[in-house]
Design goal:
Strand content: 15-25%
Number of domains: 3
Number of helices: 7
Shape: elongated
Radius of gyration: 41 Å
Helix content: 25-40%
Structural class: alpha+beta
Distance between the termini: 142 Å
Number of strands: 13
Strand order of the largest sheet: 1-2-7-8
Order of helices and strands: HHHEEHEEHEEEEHEEHEEE
């Protein structure tokens, strides 16, 4: 019997020694104690049946230990999955809050001479939902703010979205606004809606008809770039000014002077405004365009009474029947009407010593002065 007792003791010792690290590391003390008691009972049962069945005893107990270890691993994995799910839910909530799109909504200042941007959070997910939110914001004023709502004094009758363009329909009261208020209102609406990544253009109609400004520009497919906004400035101010311009005569051989009243962003240099107006062309029937309307002003700088104008190469392609001197001096004469400019230098981007219309050399070193001989005498 002593031999049998010694065998049982050694058998228990072997098993407990082999699996002791698992007991010590992974099980709570009460559970370890209960499990060891059950294990000893299994050994005793195996010993009473066949004291010599060392192999069978071990074989009978080993699956329980392995199953316990596997159960422990599965439990840990389940706990880990639950924790990951919880973290994912929390991060998802945080992401959802971050996904609320922050955009700038443009309002009119109290004097209605400029625009003031205010950051607003959008909660909708669809482009239609976000557009509706923005239109509602444009028709109301934030609490406690001394702003003017752009959509005010007229009604938004309808809107739709086609591709990347918002099509707006306003009531007839829209046309009762003065020029500056209308430009500011249009700028506020277009700039605000184009804050959405899905929207690039805005078209405005009043009772089914497009708006046409004093330059003949229509209120369709408008972009935010048409309404220059200086992000470093709090306000977008507009001014009214009369400028002196020169366009072509009917035969294209002389210049016809004209005066034009423009409402413009005060952040735009006057010389840039003059060149842009020449590019846009005349709005009367007694003078004619001189410069390709697709020409882009790359840069413009005035220093020491010399205005250097850099245009893109589109300028060299002139679709109009005008003399080259008439086209060039429509720019030069118009710019030299400004008090600070006496001479003009025209540079074509990416071109060295280009020739305009095959005859007029635009030497980068040549300074051009006002040409009074080309001006048509008033009848």
């Amino acid at each position: 019997m002593k031999k049998d007792t010694a065998f049982l003791t050694n058998l228990q010792s072997d098993f407990l020694t082999e699996f002791q690290p698992d007991f010590q590391t992974n099980f709570q003390p009460d559970f370890r104690k209960d499990y060891q008691t059950d294990l000893r009972a299994d050994f005793r049962k195996g010993y009473q049946t066949d004291p010599q069945a060392d192999f069978e005893a071990k074989k009978a107990v080993l699956p329980r230990l392995r199953n316990a270890k596997l159960s422990r691993i599965i439990a840990y994995l389940l706990i880990l999955c639950l924790l990951c799910g919880l973290c994912g839910s929390l991060s998802g909530c945080a992401a959802a809050k971050e996904d609320e799109e922050a955009v700038r909504v443009f309002y009119l200042n109290p004097e209605k001479t400029g625009l003031i941007p205010k950051a607003q959070k959008l909660h909708a997910e669809s482009v239609y939902g976000k557009t509706e939110e923005l239109l509602e914001l444009l028709a109301s004023v934030p609490d406690g703010e001394m702003y003017c709502a752009p959509i005010s004094g007229f009604e938004r009758k309808d809107y739709s979205i086609e591709n990347d363009t918002v099509l707006l329909e306003f009531s007839g009261e829209y046309r009762s606004m003065d020029t500056i208020s209308e430009k500011l209102t249009r700028a506020a609406i277009v700039n605000t809606l184009c804050e959405l990544t899905e929207i690039h253009h805005v078209t405005i109609r009043v009772n089914g008809a497009l708006i046409v400004d004093e330059h003949g520009n229509k209120s369709e497919n408008m972009t935010a770039n048409q309404f220059i906004y200086n992000a470093g400035s709090e306000m977008l101010n507009f001014e009214r000014e009369e400028i002196h311009l020169y366009f072509a005569s009917e035969d294209g051989k002389s210049l016809v002077e004209t005066y034009r009243t423009v409402v413009f962003n005060s952040n735009i240099p006057m010389e840039r405004l003059v060149v842009q107006e020449i590019i846009h062309g005349p709005n009367t029937d007694f003078n004619y365009p001189t410069v390709n309307e697709n020409t882009k002003v790359v840069n413009i700088l005035t220093r020491d009474n010399i205005c250097t104008v850099t245009l893109d190469s589109t300028f060299l392609t002139n679709p109009y029947s005008v003399d080259p001197e008439v086209a060039v001096y429509s720019i030069v004469n118009s710019l030299t009407e400004l008090p600070a400019i006496r001479q003009v230098q025209i540079i074509i981007e990416g071109e060295n010593n280009p020739v305009f219309m095959d005859t007029f050399k635009l030497d980068s070193e040549t300074l051009l002065q006002k040409n009074t001989k080309l001006i048509q005498t008033r009848q």
